From TrEMBL:
It catalyses: 4 Fe(II)-[cytochrome c] + O2 + 8 H(+)(in) = 4 Fe(III)-[cytochrome c] + 2 H2O + 4 H(+)(out). Keywords: Copper, Electron transport, Heme, Iron, Membrane, Metal-binding, Respiratory chain, Translocase, Transmembrane, Transmembrane helix, Transport. Residues 93-203 form the Cytochrome oxidase subunit II copper A binding domain. Subunits I and II form the functional core of the enzyme complex. Electrons originating in cytochrome c are transferred via heme a and Cu(A) to the binuclear center formed by heme a3 and Cu(B). InterPro entries: CcO_II (IPR045187), CcO_II-like_C (IPR002429), Copper_CuA (IPR001505), Cupredoxin (IPR008972), Cyt_c-like_dom (IPR009056), Cyt_c-like_dom_sf (IPR036909), Cyt_c_oxidase_su2 (IPR014222), Cyt_c_oxidase_su2_TM_dom (IPR011759). It is a multi-pass membrane protein. Belongs to the cytochrome c oxidase subunit 2 family. This is Cytochrome c oxidase subunit 2. Residues 216-315 form the Cytochrome c domain. SUPFAM superfamilies: Cupredoxins, Cytochrome c, Cytochrome c oxidase subunit II-like, transmembrane region. CDD domains: CuRO_HCO_II_like_2. Its cofactor is Cu cation.
Amino acid sequence: MIDKTTQDASTFVSQVDSAFLFIFGVALLFLFAITAVLVYYIFRYRKSKNPKATHIEGSTKLEIIWTVIPTILVLVMFSYGWQGWKSQKEVPDDAMQIKAIARMWSFAFEYENGIVTDTLIVPKDRPVKLDLKAMDVIHSMYIPAFRVKQDMVPGKESYIWFESEREGNYEVFCAEYCGLRHSYMMSAVKVIPEVDFDKWMEENTVAIDENNEGTNKRLAGVSVLRKYGCNACHTVDGSKLVGPSYKGILGSTRTVITDGVEREVFGDEEYIRRSIMDPNADVVKGYDQGLMLSYKDQITEQEIKDLLEYFQSLSE
């Protein structure tokens, strides 16, 4: 459940809201003041009251007033904005580092110990720095409740940081149009007590240890899908999304379009590898070409094996 109470969601809330309310208040004040003066002069100098135009000389005093006051107000607005921007760029030395990865059309979060999730889980009252990385096109990470937003440009390093003061679940959006399913590119921040976070980290560190004989291969495959955002375009239940479903992918035949020619292919390890490394070589009939990018230089051999294990469980 998403928490709609955002007053203490992060340490930036009061600062950003104060700046917004001040600027909005000034704009509203001038709107009513200018409208009131406009209406007054319409009635005061209407034709029936002033049939002959009167020449009015300028007023130096008035010009100074309407120059100095707006200048002061603009400088105050600038001060609010500058202080807010500066505080959001000065990351505390003890901030926890998490890598936020964006791709069409999902977010993934990689922790320093190797855990990868599709939901950002962070401790309460502890600064967190997100190192932002876009894998394909321009995205933008936006956490409204925390009052933070930053574009994610491929090949360019960027970051945001925050410190949450309230436990709860908060929405994460992509705020930059990034293609067909941009509006579906959503995630969440889950803020939990620090003791619970440390426990969660410890449990998941054990689960992903390669030397742990009890590691569940099925969960390992799910983790790979989450890491690369595959579930944004594919399903496990056979339903159609942007791309074909994983269900029954191994051990069955599929009709694909290869170089404009329709043919049947058998779903085996070779087909899975080719679909990951060169996704536009064999496009399943009924789906569009060019929507999936190659993962040739990203996915590891172990991750492919984990995926094959998982796909096998879906085909049984």
